[in-house]
Amino acid sequence: MRLPFTVDQFMEVFKTYNLSVWPAQIFLNILAICVVFFAFRKHRFTDRINNGILGFFWLWIGIVYHLIYFTAINKAAYIFGPLFIIQAFIFVYAGLLKNDLSFKYQGNVYALTGAVFVLYALIIYPLLGYFLGHIYPESPTFGLPCPTTIFTFGILLWTDRKVPKYVLVIPLLWSVIGFSAAINLGVREDYGLLIAGVLGTLLLWLRDRKTNAKVPDLNSVG
After folding, report:
1. DSSP letter string over 137-194?
2. Residue 36 near residue 111, CB atoms below 8 Å
């Protein structure tokens, strides 16, 4: 796939974004830590808080990164931006209005895999990027599409009830788009994006399928 911009132009967008929004990156990381904390210390309103934060992340990326900055070098960002905004409202709908997304770390294989994704997004991703030569401000920080999508899949693997599959469509789509771009641009830390998207979706499907199998059919009783 031939991209309409060069690697240098791509890195320049990161630089412009990072310098312009600073210190928002600190705030975004603090919000991510809050999501992790509330998944371990579940209380009455923590699900609503976590869904609100996830929705804010996707809204931020859609408006601030894609529509304000990325459109300068890639007109496809006029499509990506609205997709991320739609995903933000999906979290509002599924998590806040329908109450279908509930988060609690349970220590099973699904949650452990999610923990790996979360650690990758928040810690390993920036460290790996640094050693690969992507030095701040010319680096994808948390709050940008790829690390945030990896984080999202990690947190969804911490849900303690069935996840509506429409919640996964846009994150999975971006994991494929972002990975294909990463190959062309040499952003090797983004290779984990495809793993998080495909493996995360597969594990959620398997987990929820097993959960459904355990639920007895009340109509067949008696």
Report:
1. TSS--BTBHHHHHHHHHHHHTTBSSPPPGGGTHHHHHHHHHHHHHHHHHT-GGGHHHH
2. no
Here the tokens at position 1 are: 């796939």
CA angle 101, 144, 30 (to 5 degrees): 65
Find the mean pLDDT for residues 164-191. Answer: 94
Contact 168, 215 (CB under 8 A): no
- Compute φ and ψ for 95, nearest 5 degrees: -90, -40
pLDDT per residue as tens digits for the range 68-117: 999 999 999 999 999 999 999 999 999 999 999 999 999 999 999 999 99
**Extents of the domains making up the chain:** 7-209
- Whether residue 31 contacts residue 78, with contact meaning beta carbons closer than 8 Å, is answered with no
Q: Which residues pair with 142 in a beta bridge?
A: 144
Place of tokens 């050693």: 131
